[in-house]
Q: What sequence folds into this?
């Protein structure tokens, strides 16, 4: 009975039976599957002596051995299905682990997820906080620079206007520094024409110069 069940399990990859038979079948078939990892004449003869079936032994060495080559044991899985009607026997399904596509996809997804330790999370959180503070500081500096730009532009404009128009007050009148000597003489002559006292003083100065001469 165990040889027939083992052959059916190898060929069909799953089998529905009672829990007691499934547990006995697991102890019987797993050493046979381990023997199939070494593909030589001796291993094939040992497997055939247990299975007594050419087809199942061929499938075991050709198909199953490739899938279970990297697995160090635990080739079968028992899934309970409840009690059977009539004798109320506990039923289950026994299957080869590597030939169940649903469970294999879940295992691959679980392996893809890496565990994160608390220390690593703390380090990452600290680094993220430092990055946030650096970004905030950069944003504040940008805002301050933007606020200072118009002020600096206004100051430059005022400085340029002052350099272009430097004014000096002379005797209550505004005179530009860039005036030449001829313009200054003309301004003094206009003053002397307007003020009679200035004329008298200029004439007296002329008389004194003639007397001395």
A:
């Amino acid at each position: 009975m165990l040889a027939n069940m083992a052959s059916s399990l190898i060929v069909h990859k799953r089998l529905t039976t009672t829990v007691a038979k499934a547990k006995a079948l697991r102890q019987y078939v797993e050493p046979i599957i381990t023997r199939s990892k070494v593909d030589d004449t001796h291993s094939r003869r040992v497997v055939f002596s247990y299975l007594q079936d050419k087809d199942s032994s061929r499938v075991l060495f050709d198909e199953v051995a490739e899938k279970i080559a990297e697995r160090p044991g635990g080739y079968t899985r028992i899934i309970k299905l409840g009690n059977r009607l009539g004798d109320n026997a506990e039923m289950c399904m026994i299957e080869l682990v590597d030939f169940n596509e649903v469970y294999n996809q879940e295992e691959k997804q679980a392996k893809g997820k890496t565990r994160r330790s608390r220390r690593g999370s703390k380090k990452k959180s600290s680094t993220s906080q430092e990055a946030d503070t650096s970004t905030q500081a950069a944003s504040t500096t940008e805002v301050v620079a933007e606020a200072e730009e118009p002020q600096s532009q206004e100051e430059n404009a005022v400085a340029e206007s002052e350099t272009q128009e430097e004014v000096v007050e002379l005797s209550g009148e505004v005179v530009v520094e860039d005036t030449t000597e001829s313009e200054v003489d003309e301004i003094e002559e206009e003053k002397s024409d307007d003020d009679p006292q200035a004329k008298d003083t200029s004439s007296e100065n002329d008389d004194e110069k003639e007397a001395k001469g």
